[in-house]
Structures are given as C-alpha cells and as structure tokens.
Design a protein that fits this description.
purine biosynthesis, 25% strand, Dna Ligase, domain 1, 13 helices, PurK, alpha+beta, four-stranded antiparallel β-sheet, Rossmann fold
Length: 365
C-alpha cells in the first residue's frame, strides 16, 4: 500500500522482503530479498536511499547500525521506536509525562504486581514486553499464583508486565503523522472493535462527545512531540464512561507505522495514512487529513474458508457496489489479515454493517 502511493508520487520505493513471493515484493520494482539482521542485504537496501522506514516494530538493532554507518536516516528513529517495541519502556515514559494509563507493574516485581491486584482487583492483564501483537503474548490472570505460573512459562529472558483490566465502554484509536522538521497532523479519532485480540472493524468518526475527540487528538499530539516520532503513528485508547456520565481516556498501546486502524483513510480521507507516512519520513509538507465522507467503516478479512478470498470479489461487487476491496495477496491461514473493506456514506450503522458483511463474504462466511 505504501508502494501504490509512492508510485503515484513519483518516488522509488525499495523493499527488503523475506522472499520474492512476499506481497510487498510483488508490487515493488526494486526488491532486496534477505533478512533484516543481514548487514549485506541491508547495505544493498540502503544504497543511494534517502531514508529507511518500517512496516512493523520488530526491527533488529542491526538495521539502525547499518543505517547509521551508511548515513541514511531511520524514521522513526531507534530512540522513538523503542516505545512501540517495548511495553515496559512505553509505560515508564508515558508515566513520566503524566499521561493517563491503566495502573501497571513490572512483572519482575511480584510485590508491585500484588499491589496492582490489591488496588484494582483481579483479574489483571499480563503482557510480554516485546514481540506481542494481535492478542499474542497477552493473558488474563486471576491471581498472583496464576500470574507466576504464566510468567514461569515464558522463554528465558522475556520481560513482562501486568496492567489493570480497564472497564472500557469502547476502544478508540487516533492516527497522527509528524514530519522530521516538526509539523504534525492528526486524523479524527475512530472507534475500533476487537475480536480475539485482533482488530475486526473500525468506524470513523467515533460516536463520542466533541470534547473527548479533542482530548484524544491532544494526547496523540503530545505523544508525537514528547517521543520525537517521525512518520505515521497510532495511539490506541480505552474510553471509560463512569456511572455519573463522565468520560475518561486511558492510553493502551502505541504503533509507529501505518496502522490497521487507519486503513479507512485510503477511501475516506483527502490524504491516506500511506501517502502521509511517505511525506512525513521524507520531511515533505503533510497532506490534508479532512474526511471525504461523513462516515467511513472498515472491516478486516481475518482468514478465509475460501482457498483465496479473491474468489468472492465478484459476489462482493454485485451485492455491495459501494464497498472498496483491498486484498493483500497473502497466503491464507486462520485469522491472518488477508485484506480489508472500506465503505463510505452518511449512515454509520449502515456503512459498518455493509463493510462487515462484505468482509464476511471474502472470509467465506
């Protein structure tokens, strides 16, 4: 999706891929096949490059070492990406900034874990600090003994933490972009729906009070500036509505890359998150983040009972002509994100139901 935008802007995008059959390799004229911890492959990737950027956070230090040696800026920088890679580092830094978060404790400190359980009540959410995503590396633990058993089952050297189980009324995400010279723009907050730890659907704008929208955008701006992020990033949040009708936001996690929750911008916004990321990392003026429709819904294709979800494309086109289909050419396996569907319109409930129904057809449901 970055390659599509780069081509339209006249930029040359070179990709490091695990194999020639990777989806990115299929659409990028310049592909280097190799590993991200192979200095020779990295030097070939970076030869003549203006900047190197990433499509996930699990980036080995070798990438930054080779980039520094070749004089190619890495954006986001290693110092910023740390807070998306390391949940313990993120919690500590956001706490230093006084930003709203669930109560938490380092999993290595059993007294602190016990104290969070005492103050917030069990169960707590246990997470590995590095490498977990889409619900992986996350466990709901109902007691200190259960947490200890879970922790003992982790591979040696894996750090972890526990967090308060927030009684949220909805989950939100804010996409933002910041260029190297400091310009920053946010996209309107959206509501997300998770199923088995994965984002299943998104609706923008989130159906929440205007003052909460403003608060969520301000939190995203503050995080971008304080962590010195360059590129597109996502701030995932919990929204809690108290019995007296007041709302509170809690920061859940950060992602420093174009993010699944921002895929709606491809069809519902003046500047998609993919074009915006290219602008930001190249330190070009950021694009307009205004919406092009009152509402946009996105639904993910999470695995498929069909051999290939593309087998249902004609059926989706016939039944939902308003749907925009985006398939990734990934190999099919259960719960893998194989694509998404965007639907724009004036009725939030209708757009969301249409997007979900179209995605279900692609999943063979």
């Amino acid at each position: 999706m970055l390659a599509t935008e780069a081509g339209e802007l006249g930029f040359c995008l070179r990709v490091l891929a695990d194999s020639p059959s990777d989806p990115a390799a299929f659409v990028c004229p310049e592909t280097v096949v190799g590993s991200a911890d192979d200095p020779a492959a990295l030097r070939e990737l970076l030869d003549g490059a203006d900047v190197v950027t990433f499509e996930h956070e699990l980036i080995p230090d070798t990438v930054f070492d080779v980039a520094a040696a070749t004089g190619v800026p890495a954006r986001p920088a290693q110092s910023a990406l740390l807070y998306a890679k390391d949940k313990l580092a993120m919690r500590q830094r956001l706490g230093e900034l006084g930003l709203p978060m669930p109560a938490w404790a380092n999993g290595a400190d059993l007294d602190a874990v016990k104290d969070v359980g005492r103050r917030c009540g069990w169960p707590l959410v246990a997470k590995i600090s590095h490498g977990g995503y889409d619900g992986r590396g996350v466990r709901l633990v109902s007691s200190l003994d259960e947490f200890k058993t879970w922790r003992e089952g982790l591979d040696e050297g894996i750090e972890c933490l526990v967090e308060q189980r927030v009684p949220f009324s909805s989950e939100l995400a804010v996409m933002a972009a910041r260029r190297a010279s400091g310009e920053l723009r946010t996209y309107i907050p959206m509501q997300t729906w998770q199923e088995q730890g994965q984002c299943a659907a998104v609706l923008e704008p989130a159906q929440i009070p205007v003052d909460i929208i403003d608060q969520a955008e301000e939190l995203a701006r503050q995080i971008g500036v304080e962590l010195d992020i360059t590129g597109v990033y996502a701030v995932e949040m919990f929204l809690v509505k108290t019995p007296n009708g007041k709302y509170h936001l809690y920061i859940n996690e950060l992602a420093m890359r174009p993010h699944n929750s921002g895929h709606w911008t491809q069809d519902g916004c003046v500047t998609s998150q993919f074009e915006q990321h290219l602008r930001a990392v190249l330190d070009l003026p950021l694009g307009d983040t205004s919406r092009t429709a009152p509402y946009t819904a996105m639904a993910n294709v999470l695995g498929s009972k069909l051999e290939d979800p593309a087998q249902a494309v004609t059926k989706v086109m016939e039944k939902y002509p308003e749907a925009k289909i985006h398939l990734y050419r990934k190999s099919n396996r259960p719960k893998r994100k194989l694509g998404h569907v965007n639907v724009c319109g004036t009725d939030p409930d209708l757009e969301l139901s249409s997007a979900r129904a179209a995605a279900n057809l692609l999943m063979g449901k």
